[in-house]
Fold this sequence. Notes:
- It is built from 14 helices and 16 strands.
- By secondary structure, it is α/β, with parallel strands linked by helices.
- The chain has two domains: about 5-135, Alpha-Beta Plaits (2-Layer Sandwich); about 155-414, Alpha-Beta Barrel (TIM Barrel).
- The protein is elongated and about 75 Å long.
- Bound molecules: flavin mononucleotide.
- Flavin mononucleotide binds near residues 51 and 72.
Amino acid sequence: MANLIQLIYSSAASHVFSRKQLTDLLISARKKNDRLGITGILLYTDGSFFQVLEGEAETVDAIFKTITADDRHTQITIILREAISNRLFEDWTMAYAQLSSEEVNVILGSNDFFHTGRSYTQLGEGRAKKLLAAFKEGRWRAKLSNTNTPASNAYSIASVKGAETKPPGTAAATTHGTAGKHWYSFAYQPIINATMGTIHSYEALVRTADNQSAMFVFEKVAEDELPTFSEKISIDAIELAGKLGLATKLNLNFFPSSMESSSTAISSVIEAAGRNHISPDQIIVEILEREFVHNFDKFNESINQCRSAGICLAIDDFGSGYAGLNLLADFQPEYIKLDIHLIRSIYNMGPRQAIVHGIMRACADLGIIVLAEGVETLDEYLWLKDQGIELFQGWLFAKPTFEKLPTTFEIPRQ
Ligand SMILES: Cc1cc2nc3c(=O)[nH]c(=O)nc-3n(C[C@H](O)[C@H](O)[C@H](O)COP(=O)(O)O)c2cc1C
């Protein structure tokens, strides 16, 4: 039994294709596909391609590699690559349909593919049909591109001076906190407003006293002590940020369980802010998506306490766990931080793009700001920026800095 797969991708034509150019492309593709046992369909409309390739896994992957290298199109985005039991396009070495956005119904019977009798509605109920329908309705249309230059070559990196900070206070950074030096401390990572070219906020990230990652801190804390511990370190993070002269916002991490179990969690944050001349509206409380909220009344109490003090809320790592949508359905924060896993290589990962589009649409409806964290490459940044995201956090812009509020960062620009 053949190892059949189906690969579906979308791309942007490098230039406007004439009918002759499309026909030439199709004729040569058909010949080669016939020889290789590849079937499928190629759709073209307004500068966007959408192609389904079916056949032996190795053969499909090889032809896709050739197609990917073809400079007649760019922004190649894999939407699906999965094993199939039967071919959908058994009769065609490469069917072809040209769609016009004005006449979406043209897909029925307007060309050789549909003239042969099998109509669009006869393609079964698989995902390929749903994706073809989505393309027909205007989804998965990569933008017409006028350049063949990969994005990463087209941009240069500029160093931008960040937000000014107040002059640091008296005490040395390591002697922060009400109880003097601790076995843990903090690194601060800027969150950048890429449109304004400013530092929007700093996220406080707990570290060991010798700057090892949060994992080494949390492994020393018993699970049932986590809520109290997270409350305590939030206060210390505020104290240190205050001493370092925080003049922007400050993001603090909270477990939903600390919001539920401690009645003092938020009030002690407000008090610590006050002691350090930080206004509550500079504070953003990030709630981890990973954990379920068990006692919604208690949780709501803390949320209301934040809201009435002017503290903003964010759902952290949105898309990484199982609680995010439930959390979002029940309370709407000011921010959602997209999880690193969704961001990674998003520029060529169709499913991640679809999920982020969905989140963006929901957040636009709900008036929530979407922030991208863990952005590491220029292509990730450009894709996300193109969707309208303005706030970014990640190594591409600035790394976390131990016991400092870094003021320089990079914004990749054209
Ligand atoms: C949007 C698009 C779709 C293509 N689809 C196919 C295809 O299905 N089969 C194919 O052989 N070539 C296809 N090509 C052309 C290939 O990229 C390549 O030019 C062709 O396979 C000849 O390659 P070769 O002469 O180096 O073997 C496509 C090109 C583009 C721009």
